[in-house]
Design goal:
By secondary structure, the chain is mainly α. Helix content is 71%, strand content 0%. The protein has helices at 2-25, 33-47, 54-81, 92-112. α2 packs antiparallel against α3 (54-81) and α2 (33-47) runs parallel beside α4. The longest helix has 28 residues, at 54-81. The protein is extended, with a radius of gyration of 24 Å.
Length: 124
């Protein structure tokens, strides 16, 4: 009985190790979406804080645009890599990430390009 138990335990440990290493160790490192989005938001806030010199704000804006480009390139690459003909689809997390990133980037874009004051063409 003890020999059978040891074999089962050894088999379970080997199988667990294979699953752990194949799932984490050999998988391609995923894009750090959360961290990049947070960095992007911080660079945006920094550029629009009003506390920086023009040169510092320009650097923060360039950093923000670099991060926006990186986020969009990653999303577009992953979306383009999905082969619908084979039945592949995005995971729920990837779909939520798409919406979150696009929503935040659209919000930043709208803030970036809003008119300094409202202009109305209505006749009174």
């Amino acid at each position: 009985m003890k020999k059978s138990y040891k074999k089962q335990l050894l088999s379970a440990l080997v199988l667990s190790g294979v699953i752990i290493f194949s799932g984490n160790g050999f998988a391609a490192p995923s894009f750090p979406m959360e961290a990049k989005l947070k960095q992007c938001e911080m660079a945006f806030k920094k550029a629009h804080s009003g506390k920086l010199t023009v040169a510092e704000a320009a650097k923060a804006r360039i950093e923000h645009m670099k991060l926006v480009k990186e986020l969009l390139e990653n999303l577009n690459k992953r979306n383009a890599d999905v082969d619908v003909s084979t039945g592949e689809s995005l995971t729920q997390k990837e779909i939520v990430d798409n919406f979150r990133v696009m929503g935040r980037l659209l919000e930043m874009l709208a803030i970036e390009h809003q008119a300094p004051e409202a202009q109305w063409d209505y006749a009174y």
